[in-house]
Every structure is written in structure tokens, then in C-alpha cells.
Design a protein that fits this description.
The complex is a heterodimer of chains A (about 300) and B (about 270). Chain A is an alpha/beta fold and about 300 residues long. Chain A is built from eight helices and 16 strands. Chain B contains six helices and 15 strands. Chain B has a seven-stranded mixed sheet with strand order 10-9-8-7-11-12-15, with helices on both faces. In chain B, strands 1-2-5-4-3-6 form a six-stranded antiparallel barrel. In chain B, helix 5 packs parallel to helix 6. Bound molecules: flavin-adenine dinucleotide, flavin mononucleotide and FE2/S2 (inorganic) cluster. The site of flavin-adenine dinucleotide has 22 residues of chain B, from strand 4, strand 5 and helix 1.
Chain lengths: ~300, ~270
């Protein structure tokens, strides 16, 4: 009996990706840091660290604190800035045959479109992910990301600036009462996909000193502990919109990744678990087909829960 | 980045060397030789430890690596009771080594506190055995039971030992900074390297600034990835216009390259 290998490809807007495993923004650098042990080429794609117009130095220490099953971070969007990315990083990613989603954050509504216009002059990227959900910066980030009206406006401006053959993803925060409403706003604005979720707000306390550990008090919680939260948010989002949902949050194994397809995701991103295992996403790509076959599915789409529509 | 490896390391031996302190000898296939100052990210292989932990490399032979572990929390506690045959994920060697000629050619003074002795001990042994230089080595621990004596005696010229409590004839009571001051007076123009608790290194920095002695520090910072990716471990550059990663651009820095506020020497 001949076995047809599962179809792993996924189409998001005008772009078809070879497989649905991506690295999450901020957890795998610019896709160039592990080429010796985990090349970016075989992945569905790399989502870059969020880029801003100017380089950013980020927050003061402490920046991360390990929790028993997760991680609190307050990096503060430290990044090299869009120009250094275009000049130094993107050409190398292209050389490595990486499929690149560029994560972007603007200071105001217009700056997202300005960043895309800058990007549009260069080849070698498949799409952008608008980071409308970073909890660790004073301006922007969550300010935009909790308001459906602004999400729709920013998405529409970005879509207008985006070349027609590129994919537009909007990354959402779970720190709202209805992520479905945010997703609908992004869909309305013309997003090709929504990415769920950015980090969950968290606080660690220094009891002795009677204060929070992080200077900004609140930090972003990620890692295995948030997997059930992310699955719930993806489920809610998949019920709210008809564009693809990219699931992210707590993935540490191929079965964690596949769980997202059951609740309606079309692709997934691996984040925090890449820190202890930088080759994890690459290994998941290798394991994907065999595990699907074991589960009797011809494509990840077949994993989708029938009750999802309900 | 060239020459690092990611894989499972198998414990060959676990040797107690001081209170709550062991040396783990591990079998691992690394693509290159590690150098003093470099470290490895080692995962304790328990589910309540998300991240791997940074450990300086104590020695490296063909296919074998030694690390010294002092129990500081749950991950190091698990690692300290590892048995031969146990496996742990190891990523390394990582970071920059001590490589400034001024330091390596001597005269030099090494000041270590606690587990900070690991990179400096290897460096001192290496320099001495190759006949390149013989650093004056000063080590401080809390009590005699905290001194990994079996390790320290491997450096033939010997370590000058300081304890805060419970000194005996061969030990001095007080802080390593006293030893450093004395050594600098005896050897003007010496270069200094230090690794240990941050307050100790800041006190060392203050003395070196006063004495106009060039100083290299081997820093400790909470790490996420160990590879310059997560931006957890950063410290501002001297000019403040960029962030330096302790994991990739460090852990060894010339103190003049970074903002490492000197504390008042005590
Ligand atoms: C470059 C470098 C070299 C080091 N070399 C050695 C060595 O040779 N021998 C040795 O015993 N220890 C060394 N340490 C310290 C060692 O990494 C910590 O003791 C260890 O991470 C504690 O982990 P834990 O699970 O026992 O403690 P926990 O408190 O459970 O750890 C919680 C989290 O905090 C981090 N953390 C806790 N203490 C430290 C610390 N002092 N520095 C950095 N991260 C910390 C852990 O990695 C973990 O992510 C080194 C640290 C650095 C940065
Ligand atoms: C250290 C760190 C930095 C991050 N930086 C970004 C970022 O720059 N932009 C962004 O959209 N998300 C960022 N994230 C969020 C992740 O992309 C991801 O949405 C989140 O961590 C949940 O997934 P995980 O549990 O697999 O990590 C960061 C997360 C961590 C842990
Ligand atoms: S530990 Fe991640 S950048 Fe240094």
C-alpha cells in the first residue's frame, strides 16, 4: 500500500508557505542566530523580532524571570531598527532561502504604513506581522492593541501600503475581554490572518521588599504555562473570523502544535521553548508528517474539531 | 558562533569538592575546543525548569567537559545529585574567552569569589602550564567549608585564600579586596581579572580604578537563550548607545567597554 505523505502547505492571503511551523517574534532573533544548528530554510517561516523605525535599547534589568512553568519578560522591544534589518539581516535571510515574516511596531497609526513602504523597496520577505500587542513599552503596543477601532484603522492603512503579493498578519493580545472583537476588526481592516496570542500580563512580587520585581511592575508571561490560555483564545478567534488564525503560546512539542489545529489554527508559531531548545521548530517540521499519519490525517486541516463552528 | 554544539551530555563522574559543590565530568561531542571564560547552557532536565542554566567551563578535554556546580536553587540542586549515566541537554561552548594579551602575558592578578573561580582557575592553569605567565591568584569564600580545595590545588603556584569566617593558619580572614590591594602594591602595573558575586566585582573595579590597573570582568546575568537572541542578559556599553549581551559579547568584558558602576571599596 503506498502512503501519500500529508500535505503540509498552508496559504495565508496571497502567499503559500511550505509548512505551517513558524518561529514566534522575539524568540528566535532575526532568524540568523542559529544557522549552525537550526537553519531557517526548512521552516514554514521565521517571524522576526519586532522592528521599529529607530533602533531601541529596551528596558533596564531585570528583563526576564523564570517561573516554574513559564517565563516573565520585559525586554521592551530592543531591536536594531528597520534600516539595519534591511541592510544587514534581510539579504542574509534571502540567501538562506528563509521565508520571512517581518514583525513591525509603529509609534502611531501612520508609522506602520511608513514601515511597510520602507520594506516594500526590498525583496526577500513574504509578509508582515503587525505587533499591536506588546505589553512592555510605554507608548503604542497595548494602547493600540486593545481598541478594535484603532486595530481596524491601522490594519487598513497597512494593507493599503502592502504590495499585493505579500501576506498581512495582525498579532493580538489576550489581555482583553473579547479577543474575537479584536480579530473581527483586523479582518475588517483587511488582514490575511490574525496571530493569537502575544504574552499574558503577569507580575512577580519581591515579598521582602514589598514591591513587584520588574520596574514596570507588569511583564509578559509566556511558555508552557500559557498553552491552555492560548488554545482558548485561538478557539474563540477561530469562531469569530473566517481568515486564518496563527496559533502561538506555550508550544513545546509537536503534539502541542497539533492541538492548535484542532481548535481552528491554520499555522503555529513556537516561542519561548526555543530558548532551551533552539532547534525545536526544525525538529517539529521533521516530525510533522509522521505524527499526522499516525493520527490518520492527510493534512493538518483534517484535525479541525467538527464542533468548532458551534 | 563557530564551533558550538547542541546535544545530550552524559554524566561520567560526579565529585564532591566543597559544601554543596560538585564537579560534573560529562561526555559530549563538541565541534571545537572550549577556552577559559566560555560557558555552556545546561538544562537540568526537570519540567519545572523551563530554561537551561549557564555554567562556566572548568576544563575541557577531548570529548569531555568539566563543570563545577554550587547548589543555588532547584536546577543546580538536581544537577548536583546527577549520577553517572544521567543525560542533560548542553549547548556550548558559548561566549567570549579571556583573550587580551595584556592579561595573558602578565603580570596579572586574578580575583575570584565563590563559583567565579571556575573560569579563572582554568585560565591560570592553562597560562602556567604553557609557561606563558603565572598569575597571582586570590580566592575568597565564606568559610573554609566553601573552598573547593581539591580543585584549587591543581594550580601549582597555589591560590591565596581568604575567608570571611573561621580562618585557620593557611587562610587569611577578610575580603579578597584586601588581598588585591596588597598584590597591586607588590606588582604595580599588573592587569587584573575578576569573576564572582557582583558586589565583590564592583569593589574590585573601584580598587583597580584607583590604582589605574586595567581590569577584565567575567559577568553573571540571568540568561534566557545564551546566544544573543532573547536580549535578557544585556548591559549598557560604556557610551550607553548600545546594549551588550553578556552571553555572546561577554561574559568577559574589559571593564572600560561597559557601564559597570564601581562600588565603594570596603
Ligand atoms: C556566565 C555564567 C557562568 C556561571 N558559572 C557558574 C559555575 O561555574 N558554577 C555555578 O555553580 N554557577 C554558575 N553560574 C550561576 C548559575 O547559572 C546559577 O547558579 C544557576 O542558574 C541557578 O539555577 P537554579 O535552577 O539552581 O536556581 P533557580 O533560582 O531555581 O533559578 C531560577 C532562574 O534564575 C537563573 N539564575 C539563578 N541564579 C543565577 C545566577 N547567579 N546567574 C545567572 N542566572 C541565575 C537560573 O538560570 C534560572 O533561569 C554562572 C552564571 C553565569 C551567568
Ligand atoms: C523574550 C520574549 C520576547 C518577545 N518579543 C516579542 C516581540 O518583539 N514581538 C512580538 O510580537 N512578540 C514577542 N514576544 C511574544 C512571543 O512572540 C509569543 O507571542 C509569546 O511569547 C507566546 O508564545 P510562547 O509561549 O510560545 O512564547 C516575545 C516573547 C518573549 C518570551
Ligand atoms: S541570554 Fe539571551 S541574549 Fe543573552
Amino acid at each position: 500500500m503506498s502512503q501519500v505523505s500529508p500535505d503540509l502547505s498552508v496559504q495565508i492571503g496571497p502567499v503559500t508557505f511550505e509548512n505551517p511551523i513558524f518561529t514566534a517574534s522575539g524568540t528566535w532573533g532575526y532568524g540568523l542566530e542559529y544557522t549552525d544548528i537550526a537553519p531557517p530554510g526548512p521552516l514554514g517561516g521565521v517571524v522576526t523580532k519586532t522592528l521599529t523605525m529607530e533602533p531601541r535599547l529596551g528596558n533596564t534589568q531585570p528583563r526576564v524571570r523564570e517561573q516554574p512553568h513559564g517565563l516573565l519578560n520585559s525586554i521592551g522591544l530592543e531591536n536594531v531598527g528597520i534600516n539595519a534589518f534591511l541592510g544587514e539581516k534581510l539579504p542574509r535571510l534571502r540567501f538562506l532561502n528563509a521565508s520571512v515574516i517581518v514583525s513591525l511596531a509603529g509609534r502611531d497609526e501612520d508609522e506602520f504604513a511608513t514601515l511597510i513602504q520602507r520594506l516594500a523597496q526590498f525583496p526577500g520577505w513574504a509578509g508582515v506581522e503587525l505587533n499591536l500587542s506588546c505589553p512592555n513599552v510605554a507608548r503604542g503596543g497595548l494602547d493600540f492593541g486593545q481598541d478594535p477601532v484603532r486595530i481596524e484603522r491601522i490594519t487598513a492603512l497597512a494593507r493599503a501600503a502592502l504590495p499585493a503579493d505579500r501576506s498581512l498578519w495582525v498579532k493580538l493580545t489576550p489581555n482583553v475581554s473579547s479577543i474575537g472583537d479584536l480579530a473581527k476588526a483586523a479582518e475588517q481592516g483587511g488582514a490575511h490572518a490574525v496571530t493569537c496570542i502575544n504574552t499574558v500580563l503577569g507580575v512577580e512580587v519581591n515579598l521582602q521588599e514589598r514591591r513587584p520585581v520588574f520596574p514596570r511592575a507588569v511583564a509578559g508571561y509566556s511558555g508552557p504555562a500559557i498553552l491552555p490560555i492560548a488554545l482558548a483564545k485561538v478557539l474563540e478567534t477561530a469562531r469569530a473570523v473566517s481568515i486564518p488564525v496563527v496559533g502561538v503560546g506555550g508550544i513545546g512539542s509537536i503534539d502541542d502544535a497539533l492541538a492548535f489545529f484542532v481548535v481552528g489554527a491554520s499555522a503555529v508559531q513556537v516561542g519561548t521553548s526555543l530558548f532551551p531548545e533552539p532547534d525545536l521548530a526544525n525538529r517539529m517540521v521533521e516530525q510533522f508528517s509522521a505524527r499526522l499519519t499516525e493520527l490518520g490525517a492527510a493534512s493538518p486541516r483534517e484535525l479541525r474539531w467538527e464542533g468548532l463552528a458551534g | 558562533m563557530p564551533g558550538r554544539g547542541l546535544g545530550m551530555a552524559r554524566v561520567l563522574a560526579n565529585t564532591g569538592v566543597a559544601r554543596d559543590t560538585v564537579v560534573l565530568t560529562m561526555a559530549i561531542d563538541l565541534p571545537t575546543q572550549a577556552r577559559p571564560g566560555q560557558f555552556a547552557m545546561v538544562h537540568p532536565m526537570r519540567t519545572d525548569c523551563l530554561l537551561a542554566r549557564p555554567f562556566s567551563i572548568l576544563d575541557h578535554r577531548d570529548g569531555e567537559l568539566d563543570i563545577l556546580i554550587k547548589v543555588a536553587g532547584k536546577g543546580s540542586a538536581s544537577m548536583a545529585v546527577a549520577r553517572p549515566g544521567d543525560e542533560m541537554r548542553l549547548f556550548g561552548p558559548l561566549g567570549q574567552s579571556f583573550d587580551a594579551p595584556r592579561l595573558l602575558d602578565g603580570p596579572s592578578i586574578f580575583v575570584a569569589g565563590g563559583v567565579g573561580v571556575v573560569p579563572l582557575h582554568w585560565l591560570a592553569r592553562d597560562l602556567h602550564s604553557r609557561g606563558r605567565s603565572t598569575p597571582h591568584c586570590i580566592f575568597g569564600g565564606r568559610t573554609p567549608a566553601d573552598l573547593p580545595t581539591a580543585v584549587l590545588t591543581q594550580y601549582e603556584p597555589g591560590w591565596e585564600l581568604w575567608v570571611e569566617d573561621g580562618a585557620t593558619e593557611s587562610l587569611e580572614t577578610g575580603r579578597v579586596t584586601h588581598g588585591l590591594q596588597r598584590a597591586l602594591e607588590a606588582t604595580p602595573g599588573a592587569a587584573v581579572a575578576t569573576c564572582g558575586p557582583t558586589p565583590m566585582m564592583k569593589a574590585v573595579a573601584a580598587i583597580c580604578e584607583e590604582a589605574d590597573a586595567p581590569l577584565w570582568v567575567c559577568l553573571e546575568e540571568q540568561m534566557g537563550c545564551g546566544a544573543g537572541v532573547c536580549r535578557a542578559c544585556v548591559i549598557p556599553s560604556a557610551s550607553g548607545d548600545r546594549m551588550c549581551t553578556v552571553c555572546k559579547e561577554g561574559p568577559v568584558f574589559a571593564v572600560s567597554d561597559i557601564q559597570f558602576g564601581a562600588a565603594v571599596a570596603s
